[in-house]
Amino acid sequence: MALPLVSVPMKKNKKPSLVLTLSAAGLLIGAGSAAYWLLAKRELSSSDLLVGANIIPGDALFAVSLTTDPQQWQKLREFGTKETQAELDKNLVQLRDRFLTNNGYDFQKDIAPWVGNDVTIAILAPATGNKPAPKPVTTNENAASDQQSMVMVLPVKNPEIAKNILAQPKTLKQGKWIDRTYQGIAIKQSQGQVGENFSAALLDGRFLVITDSPKATERAIDAYKNKTSLATTGGFAENVPKIANYQPFAQFYVNVPTAAKIAAASPNRPLPAQVLAQLQNNQGLAGTMTLESEGIRFKGVSWLNPNSQRVLAVENKAGKMQSRVPSETLMMLSGGNLQRLWGDYVLTSQGNPLSPIAPEQIRGGIKSLTNLDLDKDLLSWMKGEFSLSVIPTTPKAGSPDDFRAGLLFMVQTNNRQSAEASLKQLDDVMRNQYQFQVQPGKVADQPVVNWVSPYGTLTATHGWLDGDVAFLVVGAPIADKIIPKPNNTLASTIPFQQTVPTEPNPTNGQFFLDVERTVKNFPLPTLIPNQQTLLDATRSIGMTSAVSDSRSNRYDIFIALKKVRNTTTLPSPESSKSNSIR
Hints:
Layout: H1 18-39, E1 62-67, H2 70-77, H3 82-99, H4 107-111, E2 118-124, H5 140-145, E3 149-155, H6 159-167, E4 176-182, E5 185-191, E6 199-203, E7 207-211, H7 214-226, H8 236-239, E8 250-255, H9 256-265, H10 273-279, E9 282-292, E10 295-304, E11 331-335, H11 338-349, H12 359-370, H13 374-378, E12 386-392, E13 405-412, H14 416-432, E14 437-443, E15 446-452, E16 458-465, E17 469-475, H15 494-499, E18 509-514, H16 515-521, H17 531-536, E19 538-549, E20 552-561, H18 573-581
Antiparallel strand pairs: 1-2, 1-8, 2-3, 3-7, 4-5, 5-6, 6-7, 8-9, 9-10, 10-20, 11-12, 11-18, 12-13, 13-17, 14-15, 15-16, 16-17, 18-19, 19-20
C-alpha cells in the first residue's frame, strides 16, 4: 500500500563554491520537502482516534488505520499514471495474498460481511524486561518474541459472523489450530507453520485482534484490560483529534522516542546519546489522509513529550512572500523566523547522523567561504519572514544561456543597519577573495549591487524590497522579476491557490513546488526509490504549517495528482497465483 521509508545519506563536499552551496541548499529544501510529502502516504483513518487505539500497546512503533471501503480504494487507484497504478496494485496484491489468499480467505466473501469501516495495523517494538539467557536453540515462538511484531485490529459490525469464522477457521496448509486462553480471553493460534504463526482473539465481541506472534496477542490484551494502550499515551488523545476528517482514507501514528531507541540500538547507525536525549523531547507524529477529486490531502500534527522541559514559541507570522515572487515561480519555501528555525534545527540535529547537513558543517562552510559568523553576523538580523524560491529566466536574444533559473533568497530584517554591514562584508569577500567585480547598479530605478565573475557573467545581485526585505539572487539575473513588485504573483495563480492549503491560518510557513514544470526543465537529485515514477504522477505539492500551541505543530499538505484514464481491475487471486507460477 505504501512504499517503505528509506533513509538516503547525502554526500557532502568540504568546500563547495558559493554558487553551488546556495543552489544545493535550494534543491535540498525543495526536493527534500517533496520527497517527505510523497513518502507520507502511509496515513490512516477513523473518526477522531485510530480504530483500536484502546487495544494497541502504548509503546507501538507505528500504527496505520485504513478504510475498507472498496470505492475509496478504487478512487486511489485512479490517481497517478499506469506505472504508479501497477506499483500500487503490486503492493495491494502482496498484502492480500499474504494475509487472506494464502490462508484460504477472500475479502469480499469472508471479511467484508462483518468487518467495520476501518482496520488498523500496528508494529510493536521488541518486548522489554528481564530476559533469561539465550538458549543455543530457540523455538520459532521465542525467536519471534525478540523481534518486532504486528497487531491487526478489525472492528466487528456483525459479531455472529465473526464468531463463526473464529470458531471454524480455514484448514491450514501446514500445522494446526490450537485453542488457549489468556486473562479470560479465548485465543485461536496456529502451530507448526513454517514462517509466520498467527493468533486471533475476539475482545468483547467488538474487535477481532490478529497478530503474528502469541506474545503480541498477550500484549494487546494487557493494553486493553490495563488501559496502557495507545489511547492513553501522552498527548495522543489531545492531539490526534486536531487532524480528524470526515471519512478519511487513512490515518497514521509514529512513536518518535520508541523509534529513536530502536535506531540507537542499531549496530549499523547508532544514535549518539545526546541525540537520543533530544529526541525524547518529541512524543508523536500523526496524520490523516483524505482523497479528493484532484489529489490527496494530508493533515498532520506532531507533539512534544508531556514531560519535556522544551516548549514551542507560538509565532505564526508568515504568508506574505508568495505575493513578492512572480507567477512563473517553480518552487517557494517560506518561514516565519529564520533565526528561530535555525535554533530549532540545531537543537534537534546537532550530532545527529541522520540529519541532511550537520549544523557544525553549515557554520564551518559559511565561515570558510565568507569569513562571517553565521549566528552573529547573519542570523542576528534575520528574525522576520524568509523565503527561498526558484524562478526560471526569460531567454533573451544574443545573451548567453548560463543559467535557466535563479535562486532567490528573501528575508525581512529587524535591523537594517546590521544587515547592511553584513552585506558590505560579503561584498568585500567577493571582491578580495574571489576576484569578483562588485558593481552598483539599478533595476527599475532601484539601487542594487551586482557581483560579476572574472569571466564577465552576472552571478549574483542583492538589494532591498520595501525598505526592510533583503534579497539575494544567485544564478540567472531575475531581479527584474521582483523589482518592481510583479503584477501577476505566485499567490494569484490557480496552481498555487488550488495546491497550497489555506489552513492552518495564521501560518509560520508554506511550501509550493510545481512538479510538472520543474521535472520537465531541471534534473532533480534522486532521494527515494522509484522517485521518477512518483514525480511523473504528480502535478504540484503544497504545504502550510503553524505552531498550534506550546506543545504541538500542525501541517496541512496537498498533492495534486494526474489521473489514469482507464483503470483496470485489481488482479484476482487466481491470476496472481498463475503469474507467480510462471
